[in-house]
Amino acid sequence: MASPAASEVYLIRGNERKTGIQALWNEIEIPPLAGKRVALKANYNSDDPFPASTHPETFRSLLEQILAAGAAEVTLAERSGMGQTRAVLENRGVFALAEDFGFDAVVLDDLPADGWERIDAEGLHWKRGFLIAKVFRDADVVIQTCCLKTHRFGGHVTLSLKNSVGLVARHDPDGTYDYMAELHASPHQRSMIAEINRFYPTDLIVMDAMQGFATGGPERGSLIEPGLLLASTDRVALDAVAIALLRFYGSTPQVMKGRIFAQEQIARAAELGVGVRSADELRLVPLDSGSKSVATEIRRILDLTG
Question: Which residues form the DUF362 domain (predicted)?
Answer without folding.
Answer: 38-243
